[in-house]
Amino acid sequence: MTHKGMADRRDVLATAGVGTLTALAGCTSLLSSSSGSKLRFLGFGGNTQETQMSVFDSWDSEMTVEGTSAGGTTEMISLIKQNPGSFDVVALNDTGMARAQQEDILEPIDLSQVPNYEKNIKESARTLSFNMNGEDTMGLIRENGATGFAYNTDKVDGELTSWDALLDPAYEGKVSLIDRTIDRLSNAAAAAGLNINEVPDDEAKTDTMFQRAREENGNVFAYWGDGATSIRYLRQENAWICEAWGGRVLALQNEGYDNIEYVIPEEGAMGWSDNLAIVKGSENMEAAHELLNHTYQRENLLSLSEGMNYTVQVKNPPSSMQELPDYAPAEDLAFRDWDAVLPKEDAWTQRLDSIKQN
Description:
The chain is of the alpha/beta class.
C-alpha cells in the first residue's frame, strides 16, 4: 500500500542486499536528496509504518511525504549515514535513539515549533533520557510497550504468568525468543530478579544474567529478529511460547486466534518506546517541524494508538487505550539507561551469541 509515495526496503535492497548498503547511495530514484516538494520518512515498516503514513496523509500541506522502511535500527542508521540528505524524519526505538545520538545523525527539535507535543503528551513522557541530550530534545515519544511473551493455550498446561515457563522441559523445541541483545538480556535479568540498568560493571550480576539467558536458551528452536516472524511462529504453532509485543499479539487475536494469550510476567519486563526525530542535515527543517506538530494533534495520536495497538502517552487516555495488553503510563514503566547499557552491547552480544550457538 502506498501513501504519497512509499518505498519498501525490499525495493531498496533487491539488488544490493542488506550487507551492501553502500550501494544504495547510487539509487537516485529512491534515495535521492530531499527536495522542497517532499519530505522523506524512514520507518520500521509493517503496521506501524502504515499507520504512521496514514496520519501523514492527512497533513494539510503542499508537500508530500514519501516513506521508506528498514529492517531494524542498525539498517536505519546505516541508511542515514551512507545517504546524507536523503531523509528528513525518522522513527527510532529507544535503542536507536541512543545509537543515533552516539553517531551524531539527529538534529535537536525546536519544541516551540511543535506546541502539540507539550499540549497533548504527558509531562512524564517528554523527558525520557534517550530522547534528550542535555537540555536539547532529540526525539519525541510516539508509542510504547513492553516485551512480554505469548503462549498457545491449546498447547500449554494452565495459565502462564512467569518467565520460569521458558524453562519447563515440556516445551523443549517449542520456545522462540527475541534476537536483540539488550531486549533479550533485559528480560533474562528481570527473570533473575535483576534490573539490567544495575548490571553493567557488576561482574556477579552480569554472570547471573547470562546464566539465566543460558538456561532460557535450552528450549529455544529459533530466535526472531522482527515482529512478523514472532507472529508467524505463533500462528503456525512452531512456537508454543514466544517472546512478543502486545500490539502484535492483539492483532493476531483479532484475526481469530483466541488461543493465543499475551502476558507481562510477574517478574516484570523492560519498557520500550518508538520515537520520532529529525535527521541531521535535513533541508526541510521547518516543514519537518510542521509535520511533527500535525502528528501530535490529539486525534492523530489516538489514531496511532488504535492502528498500532500500543500505548501513546496522551493526556487523558481513552478507556479503549487503557485496555491494551501492555498499557502503562510512562511513570509506571522502567526504561533502559542507555548511558550504562549501550557501552556493553558489543561485548554482551558476543557472549550471548556463544550461548545461542550452543
